């Protein structure tokens, strides 16, 4: 796939949209020092070229009373069966996110459940059905995940983040909240007037609902989904076994990740390993250099590392349809 060439203005626009894709064109124009019409045209071109796949809303299912469990699988080399399995995952309302990958695992996904018993039943049913395909499995529980802004657009060390998963809370969503979220999840930049029309409510009522969900941590961020291939980037996960991790060490490691221009996610899990770091890089050599840098900075903390490279990854917010069930 041919890489899309971006100039400095394109990159600044993308960086700002990833921080808050609901930013008005007038304010974005001031930030990048271009006219409102020029900014609108550039955004349209970035969509047309496939760099911006869509404008998305990051939500936290834990704030709807869900626990998030992780499943890591090695699969048999049965291409048709693999695709059938992946299709089932893509259509499941219990799956929050899934990735198809190479390396330490072939497939990783996050499954949602309101309780441990429900999770046990769901995962046993799924893995029993596909036992002929599954070579090995690792089951884990997500503690929390820091989602960083995409600093690689401008090679910036000024990292910000939001945190999803974490402690479970019961925020009740009524029918209007659900309609708003259903639209915003895949169309986060929609004008408030059009959003109000789609959900059958007034603009002020919709604004109040959005603000309330933002304050409750249900809505975390309005950002962009991008095609890494169009940017000449690859998506790697480092699976890291730690030797030790004091509060001081954890803070230092977290600050290193926050500032790293290529960092995407810092995931804490209850699993055989301790943390997972994800990066957008040009190639394996760059990823390996990052891991070696981390090892050099934190030799007393970082132990063994494994990795995967994602071929496909997908967020699937189908759980919203079941939020009140």
Radius of gyration using CA atoms only: 20 Å
The residue fraction in helices comes out at: 25-40%
Tell me the quaternary state.
single chain
First-last Cα distance: 43 Å
Strand content: 25-35%
Structural class: alpha+beta
Biggest sheet strand line-up: 2-4-3-11-8-10-9-5
Average pLDDT rating: 92
Number of strands: 11
Query: Biggest β-sheet, characterized?
Result: 8 strands, antiparallel, barrel
Order of helices and strands: HHHEEHEEHEEHHHEEHEEHE
Number of contiguous helices: 10
Gross morphology? globular
Low-confidence stretches: 321-325
Write structural notes for this entry.
The protein is an alpha+beta fold and 325 residues long. Helices cover 36% and strands 30% of the residues. The protein contains ten helices and eleven strands. It has helices at 8-19, 25-32, 36-48, 79-91, 116-129, 175-184, 192-199, 203-215, 247-259, 284-297; strands at 52-59, 67-75, 95-103, 107-113, 134-148, 161-165, 219-226, 234-242, 263-270, 275-281, 302-315. An eight-stranded antiparallel barrel has the order 2-4-3-11-8-10-9-5, surrounded by four helices. Strand 9 (263-270) and strand 10 (275-281) form a beta hairpin. Helix 6 crosses helix 7 (192-199) and helix 7 packs across helix 8 (203-215). The longest helix has 14 residues, at 116-129. The protein starts with 7 loop residues before the first helix and ends in a 10-residue tail after the last strand.
């Amino acid at each position: 796939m041919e890489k899309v060439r971006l100039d400095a203005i394109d990159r600044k626009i993308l960086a700002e949209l990833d921080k808050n894709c609901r930013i008005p064109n007038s304010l974005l124009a001031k930030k990048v020092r271009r006219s409102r019409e020029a900014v609108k045209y550039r955004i349209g071109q970035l969509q047309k070229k496939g760099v911006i796949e869509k404008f998305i809303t990051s939500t936290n299912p834990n704030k709807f009373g869900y626990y998030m469990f992780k499943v890591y699988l090695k699969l048999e080399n049965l291409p048709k069966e693999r695709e059938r399995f992946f299709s089932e995952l893509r259509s499941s309302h219990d799956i929050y996110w899934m990735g198809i990958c190479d390396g330490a695992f072939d497939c990783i996904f996050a499954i949602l459940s309101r309780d441990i018993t429900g999770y046990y039943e769901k995962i046993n049913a799924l893995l029993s059905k596909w036992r002929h395909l599954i070579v090995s499995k690792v089951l884990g529980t997500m503690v929390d995940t820091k989602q960083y802004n995409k600093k690689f657009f401008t090679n910036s060390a000024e990292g910000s983040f939001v945190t999803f998963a974490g402690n479970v809370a019961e925020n009740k969503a009524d029918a209007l909240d659900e309609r708003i979220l259903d639209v915003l999840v895949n169309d986060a930049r929609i004008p408030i007037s059009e959003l109000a029309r789609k959900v059958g409510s007034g603009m002020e009522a919709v604004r109040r609902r959005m603000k309330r969900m933002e304050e409750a941590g249900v809505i975390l961020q309005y950002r962009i989904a991008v095609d890494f291939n169009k940017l000449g980037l690859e998506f790697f996960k480092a699976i890291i076994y730690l030797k030790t991790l004091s509060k001081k060490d954890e803070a230092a490691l977290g600050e290193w990740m926050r500032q790293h221009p290529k960092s995407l996610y810092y995931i804490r899990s209850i699993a055989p390993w301790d943390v997972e770091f994800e990066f957008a890089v040009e190639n394996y050599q760059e990823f390996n250099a990052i891991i070696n840098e981390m090892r050099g900075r934190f030799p007393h903390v970082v132990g063994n590392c494994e990795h995967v490279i994602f071929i496909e990854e997908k967020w699937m917010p189908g759980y919203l349809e079941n939020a009140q069930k």
